[in-house]
Amino acid sequence: MDHGGQQLCMALTKAVLHSKIHSAPAVLVRSGASYKLKPVDYPVSHISGERGVDVKICEKPQVRRLAWALLAGISALLLTAGLSLLLSHFQVLAQPVAEVAAANLQVQKGVNTTQARPGDTLIYTIIISNAGDTQTTAWLSDTLPTDELTYATGSLTATAGTFGIEAGEVITWSGSLTSSEVATVTFAAQIASPSGDQARFDVINTAQVTGAGTLVSDSVETTAIVTFEIRLPFITCNYPPRPVLDDIPDPDTHNSFTVSWSSIAGVDRYVLQESTDADFTTVTDEWQTTATSQLVEIGTGHGLRYYRVRADDDDRWGQGPWSEVKSVTLRMNYYDTFSDSSSGWLTHAAECCLATCDDVFGGRTNLEYKYNLYYGGGRYHTYIPKNCYEGGDHGFTRHIYPISLAPEIERPTSNTCIEIRGSFEKHIWNESWGLIFASSDDLSKNYSLWVDDRGDWAITKRTNYLFPGPNYSASGDPREYIVAPTGVHRWPANKGTTPNVLRAEISGSHIKLYVNGHEVYDDYDNGILPLKRVGIIGGNNEWGDIQIGYDYFYVDEGCDDY
After folding, report:
1. 214-225/115-116 β-pairing
2. C-alpha atoms less than 13 angstroms from C-alpha of 324 in its C-beta half-sphere
3. Higher pLDDT residue, 304 or 207?
């Protein structure tokens, strides 16, 4: 056998020796440059192999047995190789190695409040953490419920990774987290107004995080309160009781009366208030007293006054509740001495010393230049100026009789006295002044008792008075003399600059008139019933530059001072 055959034979022999099976005898046969294994059925040299295997190798022409032995050896070789690989794999798996934990993503979401109102802004915080041992990439998605929340533009921030807002309602974030790394995402959203009439609704917002093959999520809830229901405990305050205000008696002639009320034990004081309206919008007077009554002295006044009282106790919750409101009607008690220039009578200043005042005799042009009404020297005055361009015996300011009504005074229907005192300060001839004891608001209808500088007196009813004049003819000043003048001095009037006192006592339609304390007229006239205003009239008949002064004007309901 050549060298190549010997090597192949040895290899096969070793393969058989190491195999775990018995092989049939075979022989290696050379054919040209190659060898073939053939089994043999005749005796060959025996080689004792391991594990008791007998192998016949390369002897004599037992070719067939040798071939079968060679095939069996190849099979054994392949089987041995497969078993070796399998055993090697088992050995690797059995070797001890370190444990490896996968990524472990966690998410936690919070909100700054659990109760809010529509329009309030909520602050959301999302914390994404990797609790595992390996680095991983995570993705966050948070879709806002747009019916309930509106994203606050520019409020989205994150401590790591990339973030954004999609379609104005989806919060997104992504980033790579190492082991134990944490990323915090923060944003704000405003609570929307409710679509219905519900008193409250829940705003639920959920954040979802994916990565490392897992999906984790967390939600927070805020209750939006539309209306608050507050139930307070019942508290009893031990404040002073409410006083009972007594009925107020009628005022006396000077509008004085006493207001009284019930006593409350242990209080420190009582507070009494006065007002001209029942709601006490304006408090006209206030008294503090320890007594249970108060004398009220008004004097000049008229109309209604309202009163209420309360008890104060500094040791028992302070001020108590106000009593029921009671009222009293003041007697008409008006007395003006004209010392106060703001008492409300009509004022007008003019000087008719202008060429433009020279109008047609008795005309009504330039009337604003033809009379003066003013306060001065403790009196109230009427002055009819002189026309600087008068001709002949008459001036162009003839028959100017301005009227001034008592401010805000209406004559009561009950028995009432009206009185005035006045005198001529300047006079030329045939001037007069008087007391208006009944007039309409527009002055067109009025009744008057008057005296002139000659010491005469008369009673006049005007039905179409034209302020301030001229009032000198039936067409220009329709008037009726209830008592006509005589043109000469007539008792009991005073003439010249001597003062006269004129007084009217009216009760319904009953009229009594007095000059200097002497009755000159007593009769009835229903025409005065709707005419409630009172006042002063004075002027000239012929000449200008005359002046009248008045000392007082007095209205007294009840005529107690007469």
Report:
1. parallel
2. 8
3. 304
3-state secondary structure of 70: helix
Cβ-contact 412, 504 below 8 angstroms: no
CATH numeric code, 355-557:
2.60.120.560
Residue 205 amino acid letter: N
User: 105-225 belongs to which homologous superfamily?
Assistant: ntegrin, alpha v. Chain A, domain 4 (2.60.40.1530)
User: Taking the domains of the chain in order of start, what are their residue ranges?
Assistant: 3-93, 105-225, 256-330, 355-557
Structure-token pair, residue 402: 């301005």
Whole-structure pTM over 0.70, yes or no? Answer: no
Give pLDDT tens digits for 421-468.
999 998 887 889 999 999 999 999 999 999 999 999 999 999 888 888
Lowest mean pLDDT among 34-38, 196-200, 289-293, 405-409: 34-38
> What one-letter code names the amino acid at 16?
V
Surface-to-core class of residue 65, CB atoms within 10 Å of its CB (0-12 exposed, 13-18 middle, 19+ buried): buried
Contact between 248 and 257 (Cβ < 8 Å): yes
Do 355-557 and 256-330 fall under one CATH topology?
A: no
Average pLDDT, stretch 321-341?
92
CATH code that applies to domain 256-330: 2.60.40.10
